[in-house]
Amino acid sequence: MLTVDAFPDRDFTGTVAAILPKALIQQNVVYYDAVVELDPSDGLLRPDMTASVRILVGERQGVLVVPNSAVKREEAERVVYVLDEGRVVAEGRHRELLRSSPVYREIYDSQLGGGPAGSKGGSGGTNHGL
User: What is the pLDDT of residues 55-73, one digit of tens each?
Assistant: First the structure.
């Protein structure tokens, strides 16, 4: 999805046709120019207009969303740190945390619809890579 300043209340869609190899680094963030082929837009947009683009690279249902900042590697394993009001209240892998951390269980249930282990949204033995 992309937006342009000239039409702030309208979203446009398209497909990334190319990502240019030259990077621009600003405030320690790396940016790349991309060429987006737009879906028909009633001729509202002009060539070389600048746009803000959000690129969807994949979508999954039934997975737990954990911020990267909450996951750390320890001895080749990924460990999740669970915070409650800014304090670490638990740490471990997904299955361990489902059993031992009420805060983690609450987050998991709220995102995936809850339910007992083995039902839709429960722990059910699925390895979420954590």
Answer: 888 888 877 777 888 888 8
Q: Where do the H-state alpha helices sit in the chain?
A: 94-100, 102-112
Inter-CA distances, 45 with 2, 12, 34, 37, Å: 11, 10, 16, 12
Q: Cβ distance 14 to 37 under 8 Å? A: yes
Q: Using pLDDT thresholds of 50, 70 and 90, give the confidence band for residue 114.
A: low
User: Is the CB of residue 52 less than 8 Å from the CB of residue 3?
Assistant: yes
Pairing of strands 2-4, 52-53: antiparallel
What are the structure tokens assigned to 63, written together?
């997975």
Our CA angle for 121, 124, 128, nearest 5°, is 80
Note the pLDDT tens digit of each residue in 27-41: 988 988 888 888 876
What's the mean per-residue pLDDT of the chain?
80
Bridge partner residues of 79 (DSSP)? 72
How far apart are the C-alpha atoms of 98 and 1, rounded to whole Å? 35
Cα distance between residue 79 and residue 87, in whole Å: 16
